[in-house]
Amino acid sequence: MPKLPQVKPRELAKILRASGFQERPTSGSHMGYIHNNGMRTTIAIHNKPIPKGTLKAILRQAGMTTDDLIDEL
User: What phi-psi label fits residue 63: left (phi over 0), alpha (psi between -120 and 50 degrees) or beta?
Assistant: First the structure.
């Protein structure tokens, strides 16, 4: 498995939208995303890269792998 890259929240949001996720209503600095098949995930929008553990959790919730993420970058 390749090394997990550093990704900023806005980059990840763009990748999720390209993968079929749609934004759902949220409040504050978090953005929620939902897919037609029922998968959901939430991203805190800020300027720092997403911590690795958080990124792994978001990818797992979105049904993506590290390889999928690298291909989309």
Answer: left
